[in-house]
């Protein structure tokens, strides 16, 4: 394969001159540039993005990486990718998406940057103890997290405020008179590996219930409609079923709503359901339409890309770059007062004995 060094030798110039001719980073004398291009043509040299950026030591590519999960990526992740891609393109950069096996992700990311295939890394689907973060920190390479570790001090990140989002969902149900409120979270496997949303969503729910002196009722659930239906049967079989449910698992939510109604529980008359960090698109597909809280994925992706570019240009200290975003409510038809609730008194009415 013909290299830039081969072109430099044929044109009798320095390698940096070939690089400047390709990138335009510095002026090159017309006669010299002509010799370089003639040598490229004679040798059939095909410059790539890395070659064009060599003079500035830039590939003009940002790597976005996420671990390979057994479950499908949600709509918010696709929005994050879209937002990052648009922002990168505005600054003349490409975005390359790299799904990596967790066991080798750290070493592969370091190699990507050191080999000049990417200038910096956007980490998506961050775990609270993420090996990718540790590897990039050790190598002193530029990166921004879409998510955050257990201790993100000194690191650049943008993340959903999961604790506040779930607390808001519990609070909405509480204000409608619900006191028996269940939480359906991510698969147990994600919680065990320390996947940030799975950990923080559950923590937020437990804190929200404790702050309101309510008994928690939390479940892990696989990300499938079938798992949601099975959990609906489990909830309906309880001696005292919940009157409100916060579900932070889109695929399970599909089955949950259908399953609750199959068990004779009317939504929202008998039981209310709200989707936390959920997809409005999915919410509109359910019957009744699911009330959701939706994260601004595109804005998060754009923020992350913009921050990484500023770090690359040394215009931003990673320690000064952190943002938690809140979710907006998308009204559906799955939320209502608790059965027998006295909303003026903000508590369920006591059933009269007979």
TrEMBL record:
Question: Record's SUPFAM superfamilies?
Answer: lambda repressor-like DNA-binding domains, Periplasmic binding protein-like I
Q: Name one Pfam family in it.
A: Peripla_BP_3
Domain HTH lacI-type positions:
2-56
- The highest taxon in the source lineage is Bacteria
UniProt cross-references to CDD domains, sorted A to Z = HTH_LacI, PBP1_AglR_RafR-like
Molecular function via GO = DNA-binding transcription factor activity; transcription cis-regulatory region binding
Q: What is this protein called?
A: HTH lacI-type domain-containing protein
> Sorted alphabetically, which keywords does the UniProt record give?
DNA-binding, Transcription, Transcription regulation
């Amino acid at each position: 394969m013909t290299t830039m060094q081969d072109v430099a030798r044929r044109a009798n110039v320095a390698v940096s001159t070939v690089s400047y001719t390709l990138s335009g980073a510095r002026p090159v004398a017309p006669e010299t540039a002509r010799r370089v291009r003639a040598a490229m043509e004679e040798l059939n040299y095909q410059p790539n993005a890395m070659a064009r950026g060599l003079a500035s030591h830039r590939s003009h590519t940002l790597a976005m990486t996420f671990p390979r999960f057994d479950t499908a990526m949600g709509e918010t992740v696709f929005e994050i990718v879209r937002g990052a891609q648009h922002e990168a393109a505005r600054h003349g950069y490409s975005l390359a998406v790299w799904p990596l096996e967790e066991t080798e992700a750290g070493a592969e990311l370091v190699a990507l940057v050191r080999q000049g295939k990417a200038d910096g890394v956007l980490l998506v689907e961050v775990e609270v103890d993420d090996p990718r973060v540790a590897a990039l920190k050790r190598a002193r390479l530029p990166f921004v997290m879409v998510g955050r570790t257990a201790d993100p001090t000194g690191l650049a990140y943008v993340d959903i405020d999961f604790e506040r989002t779930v607390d808001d969902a519990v609070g909405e149900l509480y204000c409608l008179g619900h006191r028996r409120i269940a939480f359906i979270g991510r698969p147990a496997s994600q919680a065990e590996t320390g996947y940030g949303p799975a950990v923080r969503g559950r923590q937020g729910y437990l804190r929200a219930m404790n702050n309101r002196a309510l008994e928690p009722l939390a479940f892990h659930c696989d990300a499938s409609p079938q798992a949601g239906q099975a959990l609906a049967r489990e909830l309906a079989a309880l001696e005292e079923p919940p009157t409100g449910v916060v579900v932070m698992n889109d695929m399970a939510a599909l089955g949950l709503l259908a399953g609750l109604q199959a068990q004779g529980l009317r939504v929202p008359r008998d039981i209310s359901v709200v989707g936390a960090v959920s997809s409005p698109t999915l919410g509109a597909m359910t019957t009744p339409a699911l009330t959701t809280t939706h994260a601004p994925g595109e804005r998060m992706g754009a923020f992350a890309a913009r921050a990484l570019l500023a770090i690359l240009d040394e215009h931003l200290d990673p320690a000064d770059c952190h943002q938690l975003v809140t979710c907006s409510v998308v009204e559906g038809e799955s939320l209502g007062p608790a059965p027998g609730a006295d909303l003026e008194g903000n508590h369920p009415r006591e059933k009269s004995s007979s």
